[in-house]
Fold these 2 entries.
Entry 1:
Amino acid sequence: MLDTFLEKSACRTPINVNGDASVNQQTSFIEQLPKVELHLHIEGSLEPEMMFELAQRNGVSLPFSTPEEVKAAYQFTNLQSFLDIYYQGANVLIHERDFYDLTWAYLLRCQQDNVVHTEIFFDPQTHTDRGIAFDTVINGIYSALRDGEEKLGISSQIIMCFLRHLDEESAFDTLFEAMAHKDKIVGVGLDSSELGHPPEKFARVFRKALDEGFLTVAHAGEEGPVSNIYDSLELLKVSRIDHGVRCSDDENLLHALSNSKMPLTVCPLSNTKLKVFERMEDHNIVELLRRGLCVTINSDDPAYFGGYMNDNFKAVAESHQMSEQELAMFTRNAIMASFISEEQKSHLLDKLGQFVSHYHQDK
Ligand code: ADE
Ligand code: ZN
């Protein structure tokens, strides 16, 4: 029943035909579409303006003199060229209030973009390695998310990522710190430099995390080979693959992902900024959707990659011929792939169904 609303929908207008009316229509559909984000690094939502504000507040010196200079430095050639600058930016985050302010600013962007549920990553080691307490980080993020739920009606979950360029011992230490916060952290993930740091390096940490009741996800097949996708499924028992776009290199994997409905949290603007795809027209997300994979649209590190959720949706819709049903399918997939209760999923699917069926009638 929950799956049928898209078939029943009367909105069958192709929305990316040439012509202004249809472009406006597509923009407005995307803006009003309720959205769910499943791949967002909270440190990657640090806008240059806030970076400067926090640097001043905390007496941290930056190698830039204006936010414009920071923005001009965001010319990336690959994942590593981004990560180097991203870890540097995080140095301005020191106090619980900084993590609160960062998260609150992101939630206000969610409200603007009509994001109704979000599952955010944080990288504890980026902060604990600088002497910031784990509790400072998680408490700041968590209290902003609680306020987001109460004041903005945006629900959320937290996923803690291990930095894969660091060693297994550091990941275990981080997992042990997280044990005291099981009530706040729904799952663990794996991010940072994919090349040279395969999933098997963290197989034992993930086994322990699963034993402790955490769900698991992992960045795989962003820049790295399809073997990282296979190994994340096999060894890390992930519930979702973050990125996963390199799956197109392997026909057998495509079939397996389609049959299992294993979710991929795809980040279109991130992928073009980091040169995973040269142009948005070359991105495989629409092809994957049409082949029956459970693909979703997400913003990854929006302050660095030029846009939040609506920008990512628009970038995909502007460069591919898509119907409204297909756009809504990204939200449907994200609801199904989220780490919320069946009851909450049902509620969000209803909300989406209502939106799709009333969108044209109400205009
Ligand atoms: N950390 C933040 N953004 C990331 C990305 N796109 N890939 C890997 N690690 C990340
Ligand atoms: Zn990511």
Note: The CA atoms of residues 207 and 239 lie 13 Å apart.
Entry 2:
Amino acid sequence: MSMRLILLGPPGAGKGTQSDVLSRRYKIPHISTGDILRKAVIKEVPLGVKAKSYMDKGELVPDEIVTEVIVDALKSDDAKKGFILDGFPRTLNQAIALDESLSKISSGIDLIIYFETSPEVAIERLSGRRVCSKCGFNYHVKNIPPKQEGICDRCGSRLIQRPDDKEETVRNRLKVYQTQTKPLINYYLRKGNLKKVSGDMDVDELFKVIFKIFEDEHLA
Ligand code: ADP
Ligand code: ZN
């Protein structure tokens, strides 16, 4: 049985957090374009150099660049049993490229989970998010505070705000989502394998809802 999932939804919907839960539980890789791109930026490899200016402004990185990243990731051995795509596809072109690439290996997506999330919740989560400058672990000033303010519980390094989590950049990311990514909901609804959940729920509650969908769909 395979579990090939796409998590779709606005920035701040909690896709990354839920991906981590699902990835551990089902032992399938969490493939996040945002994480891959951020690592490339830190290492200053060509991919990162190309992507940085778009990311800092909250714009999308061009389709060709991210599509190549994902096609490579899907070829890896650990993606054979399944995968969780988080943050890809984000445009219609990317969705079509993904379909083409999967059809070449006579495979497809089993389920698209759409995280419907209210803008207030998304903005509150993103503006309060802090990340560890070293290990990348996520915190939230109110919801998931570190034991000692500004310091990572796990490794003791300094917590920072992601450059694209500044309020005006967050607004731009939400706008970009509305215009470029939201049309994917209809695209996948027409293909018939999209299920909607509420991204406003807390982590454990939402996992239970997703688990129920897996059961109904005979995925777990
Ligand atoms: P969020 O979902 O919270 O906006 P991500 O970490 O997924 O954050 O993405 C951060 C940034 O990385 C995006 O604003 C964009 O610049 C870039 N990015 C990530 N995924 C894609 C994608 N599929 N297509 C284009 N750009 C992307
Ligand atoms: Zn840390």
Note: The longest strand covers residues 3-8.
